[in-house]
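Q: Predict the assembly, please.
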Amino acid sequence: MDIFFDYFWAFVLGGGLCVIAQILIDKTKLTPAKILVGYVCIGVVLTSVGAYEPLVKLAGCGATVPLSGFGYAIANGVKTAVEEKGLLGALTGGIGATAGGITASICFGLLASFVFSSKPKR
Amino acid sequence: MNEKEYSKYVEGRAKKSPILKNCAFAFLIGGTICTLGQGFFHLYTFLGMDELDARTLVSVTLIFITTLLTGFGVFDNIARFAGAGTLVPITGFANAVASEAIDSKSEGFIPGVGAKIFTIAGPVILYGTFFGAIYGVIYYFITLIWG
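A: Predicted assembly structure:
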């Protein structure tokens, strides 16, 4: 049953975060790029005040897969690095914690540009 | 018709975006992507990874799938009706990177792919890292004072 609720909350929170962005797209003039940047920054801020961790505990990937989870990883990485290395951790923790995702997307992206060509927009 | 009248005319004629339908699709597809991520997360922790590594690998998995779907031109078809449902999860980030890379190939690999790959990723990484660094400095001094 526990596992059912893991998936249930992942679906509900993940979907809910998307709905908020959809409303912003439809009702305001915010571009997708601005929404992505906003989600990351809000993720960092909410995590730093301790408000995001409970969402991750509840919904798992429903909180970590949306881009606000990218901000969560940055803030958490910074916190751990500061605890280990002091002030230097403020500079190394953020990108360090998200290195996997960043490196994967730009390297896969580059490989994709070798293999694929752009398709005419329909 | 001057410019002001024209923009008013266009606004009046612009199709009212069916917000309820858009939100339903965003919810269903965004929720499905996160649930899929949760499935991978269970698989990776089941195989013995710790939670932090498993989360990173979930992102990498979704990024890999997105890059492939973007390359084959399938992702755009899903994104067209998913809207924010594919934008907000890490898939939106990966799609932005991959599609910029593929589309700017004709401009060369240094000024084209190399620079354009960061069109969306750059701002996201920049502002996320910036606020993270500020948090780190504040957190450092808070722990220094209250120990």
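Residues 2-115 of chain A form one domain. Chain A has a mean pLDDT of 95.
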